[in-house]
Design a protein that fits this description.
Strand content: 5-15%
CATH architecture of the largest domain: 3-Layer(aba) Sandwich
Number of domains: 2
Structural class: alpha/beta
Order of helices and strands: HHHEHEHHEHEHEH
Distance between the termini: 49 Å
Largest sheet: 5 strands, parallel
Length: 202
């Protein structure tokens, strides 16, 4: 039984469940590696300074977070007269379904990186398990071709914890997708609101 299942089993009402869940989420946030967050922020700052692109990938709810991250980074940090972030989520449905149909779903992101990736571009993968084959293939390709890989991961980090250059891990028991995905979205807002502040102060 993981923590979320335990919370559900002891909750007598929706309000009680919400209270326990919020408390657990707060505990999860407090256990983040804040130095790892700083390292990711520095990678993004340097990519912007160089004019490199930052690509975001994920599956399911993590794809939605990837798109949210790209939007907040490219649009949400914009400041008149200042260099923008070149950020893009690789989640176009027509491309994904074409690539999946012709080459298999495990290739839907790597085929895009083959077209787009340049040396020192950044690839950010968002995954609870860290074991999705299509994300692993994309990160391996980026690593082989001069890219900088970042993982926003959960559970034990999976294989991607071992292959990403930088990683922010949300430590939970396996199967606790809710707290991991919640924390990933909070990380999006922490990182992008801080970067907006940094750009405004330049």
């Amino acid at each position: 039984m993981n923590k979320i299942e335990e919370i559900a089993s002891i909750s007598g009402s929706g309000a009680e469940y919400a209270q326990y869940y919020a408390k657990y989420l707060s505990e999860t946030l407090s256990e983040l590696d804040f130095q790892a967050i700083e390292e990711v922020i520095e990678v993004l700052k340097k990519a912007r300074a160089r004019g490199n692109s930052i690509f975001f990938i994920g599956n399911g709810g993590s794809m939605a977070t990837a798109s949210h991250f790209a939007e907040d980074l490219a649009y949400g940090t914009r400041t008149e007269g200042k260099k923008p972030f070149r950020a893009l989520s690789l989640s176009d449905s027509s491309y994904l379904t074409a690539a999946a149909n012709d080459e298999g779903y495990e290739n839907v992101f790597v085929t895009q990186l083959k077209n787009l990736l340049k040396p020192q571009d950044v690839v950010i993968t968002i995954s609870a398990s860290g074991n999705s084959p299509n994300l692993i293939k994309a990160i391996e390709y980026a690593n082989r071709n001069g890219g900088i890989s970042i993982g926003l991961l959960g559970f034990d980090g999976g294989k991607m914890k071992e292959i990403c250059h930088h990683c922010i891990l949300v430590k939970t028991m396996k199967g606790e997708y809710g707290p991991v995905e919640d924390t990933h979205l909070i990380l999006v807002h922490i990182i992008t609101t801080y970067l907006k502040h940094v750009i405004q102060d330049e």
